[in-house]
Amino acid sequence: MLLVEDDALLGDGIRAGLMLAAYAVDWARDGATALRSLLDHDYDACVLDLGLPALDGLSVLREMRRQKRQLPILILTARDTADDKIGGLDGGADDYLTKPFDLGELQARLRALLRRAGGDARPTLSHGGVELDPATKRVTRDREEIALTAREYALLLDLLSHPRHVRTRAQLEESLYAWGEEADSNTVEVYVHHLRKKLGAGFIQTVRGLGYQLLSPD
Ligand code: CA
What we know:
By secondary structure, the protein is an alpha/beta fold. It has eight helices and twelve strands. It starts with a strand and ends with a strand.
């Protein structure tokens, strides 16, 4: 997830809240950096402040949509005038929040955006008897609760969010780590190994030379 916010204190709080919800968060502090990052990386969603140095949020938003980038974008606006909201939504934003806002509401709105982006409006993700509820971070297998670490959870969330796709190691690493966090070279393999022990050996398939994919449903 990319967070774009120039206010240090607010950005720090939002990033912490998003990381608690198990998202890997990159944080850009101006519009130009944000646009470059959005064009260079494959983010699942973006939380975008409107009032930014270098390039304002509305320009970032419009440029992304002009380039046909489809990721969900939620705008944050300090100005609660209707014009700002209308401008943002007409500029291609999927949702907005007016500052000050509740972190729990931001998390819930992002969950809803990610569900819709995944083509599924159901609040839980499930596959082959494994069910994950992003609101409670509860994971069950055949209705029995499974305890996962934060990284195991993040990896499973990524795989369940892309059930029909092979996920490359680089894509999975992006879901596990934010900018500046050093990933060990075999880190994805380690967490896949842990998940297989907890969810069953066949649940995650290795696609040789490509990456990993969930067992195809029978
Ligand atoms: Ca700002």
